[in-house]
User: What shape does this take?
Amino acid sequence: MDIYRKPTSTDVIIPNDSCHPREHKVATIRYLHNRMVSYQLAPENMEKERNTILQILNSNKYNTSILRKLSTKKGHKRKKEKTKWVKFTYVGRETGAITKIFNNTNIKVTFGTDNTIEKLMTTRHEHTRSKYENSAIYQLTCPTCSMKYTGQTGRPFRVRFREHSRDFKYGNGKSRFASHLIENKHSIGPMDNIMETLHTTRKDRMMDTIERFTSSSRPK
Assistant: This one.
């Protein structure tokens, strides 16, 4: 018996220097270790798998001694008392220090992270000004047929809306949204009713990626 890995398999796990709870990092390592010792591997395959895990640890900046500690760590009996779970957003080592106050209680702590792909790719609206003063990805909805148009702009959303409105008024064909309204004899409606701001980000190639993702993931 041996452990199979696809040819496309990589040695990437949560890096040791990533801002994630230690529990999340150790979970993957513990899984790899438990799988290795649970399967009835031949001695040579056991050694090969151990070397693979050590390579994964080394590539992701872990001290390889963690594997030895898992091998010698003994299990402990769980108390049968009723426990409650609370969730904390992990922002660094300070989070772990604060949650230690629950160690001797019946409250168990679980951690979540705030660095999701969506939040890394976008920025939040500034609360000190109107959302229409920001720029990036927006969506217009035809008030007559509910057709949706997704676009991007490096200028404030309100400026881009005025351009759509002007194209609708004069029928110059520059705006696809305005062309749809004109061709189907639909009305345009006020900005607050038909314009939705989806994401804000810098004007760069990332904006194109977000626009494509938004267009494919939202209902038309």
User: Anything to note?
Assistant: The CA atoms of residues 125 and 131 lie 6 Å apart. Residues 22-38 form the longest helix (17 residues). The mean pLDDT is 83. DSSP finds nine helices and five strands in the chain.
